[in-house]
Design goal:
Layout (H helix, E strand, L loop, with lengths): L12 E5 L13 H18 L5 E5 L2 H10 L3 E4 L4 H6 L10 H10 L4 E5 L4 H9 L4 E8 L3 H7 L4 E5 L8 H18 L3 H10 L4 H10 L5 E5 L5 H9 L4 E4 L1 H4 L4 H11 L6 H8 L25
Parallel strand pairs: 2-3, 2-8, 3-4, 4-5, 6-7, 7-8
Antiparallel strand pairs: 1-5, 1-6
Helix pairs in contact: 2-4, 2-12, 7-9, 8-9, 10-12, 12-13
Length: about 300
């Protein structure tokens, strides 16, 4: 997302954007555009320092300190964990209170994200003014929205399933959808790439770059329903650059131990024996939610 307003519809990818005045990366002809490109390169380089890490959603300074001690690469400040938001469906959740963001920033030395509503660039401007490292636009979109989000200035994207459920199934489904479309894209000729870019409303140069390198040109983290070290390792083995963890840690029986285990799982994801060690004695995991519940309709298939 750039610093202009956009209209979005609901449906599985979440963008995380640094707001430093950078416009879409397709603007390449003026001195202003050169400045924008430099700003975009700077913020994506900063984002790449988080590669291979775990980002935890926290609601207070104490949780943020737990995340930092556990080895999280960053935290996202939010007033409500995903599971709490799910239990209060129908309410409007605005940006995090700046006072809470400042308390969390004071408590830790790692980067601090803060959430803004979809397309609400004034909330993003406020959060930037108080010094957050990243603005987290929790944007529930179709998986193919990733390339379009990059064109709007996103420094990273989050392929997300059903947050607050303790159930990783839809996160896996959405990530595989992204990977599948990239594989199809890699076999397209130039005309097909152009038509594909038009169809998904994404800049041609971003789509072509994705074809060339075989992946999105920014980091792609996974989030939603990740509640155990095995869940973390699963997403890493499927090709994610890192994971977001929300309720999975702080709704578990032992948040401190669980947080450490999940962070370590992100670096030991190819070692089944090591993952077994990390999974010992963690206590009860967050309760999982059957996604076929509530009238037999999959939550992720809703469009309201």
């Amino acid at each position: 997302m750039s610093s202009s307003d956009h209209t979005h519809t609901h449906t599985g990818t979440v963008t995380v954007t640094v707001y430093k005045g950078a416009g879409p990366i397709t603007e390449t002809t003026s001195s202003t555009s050169t400045k924008n490109l430099a700003a975009f390169a700077k913020k994506t380089a900063f984002a790449k320092t988080l590669c291979g890490g775990v980002i935890m959603e926290v609601t207070n300074a104490e949780q943020a300190r737990i995340a930092e001690v556990a080895g999280a690469c960053a935290v996202t400040a939010t007033e409500h964990l995903p599971s709490d938001i799910r239990s209060r469906r129908g309410e409007v959740f605005r940006m995090c209170d700046p006072q809470l963001v400042q308390q969390i920033r004071t408590a830790v030395r790692i980067p601090v994200f803060a959430k803004a509503r979809i397309g609400h660039f004034v909330e993003a401007q406020i959060l930037e003014s108080i010094g957050v490292s990243f603005v987290d636009e929790s944007e529930l979109q179709k998986p193919r929205r990733g390339a379009a989000a990059v064109g709007e200035g996103a420094a990273m994207v989050r392929t997300e399933g059903e947050v607050g459920t303790g159930n990783v199934v839809d996160t896996v489904r959405h990530l595989r959808a992204v990977m599948g479309e990239i594989r199809v894209l890699s076999n397209m000729d130039e005309d097909e790439v152009f038509e594909f870019a038009k169809r998904i409303s994404a800049p041609y140069d971003v789509v072509w770059k994705t074809k060339e390198i075989g992946r999105l040109p920014v980091l792609n983290f996974a989030g939603g329903g990740i509640s155990t070290p095995a869940d973390v390792a699963l997403m890493m083995q499927l090709g994610c650059d890192g994971v977001f963890i929300g309720s999975g840690v702080f709704k578990s029986g032992d948040p401190v131990r669980c947080a450490r285990a999940m962070v370590r799982a992100a670096t030991r994801y190819t070692d089944p024996g090591g993952l077994a060690d990390l999974s010992y004695g963690l206590g009860e995991a967050m309760s999982g939610l059957d996604l076929e519940d509530e009238g037999g309709v999959r939550f992720a298939d809703r469009t309201e």
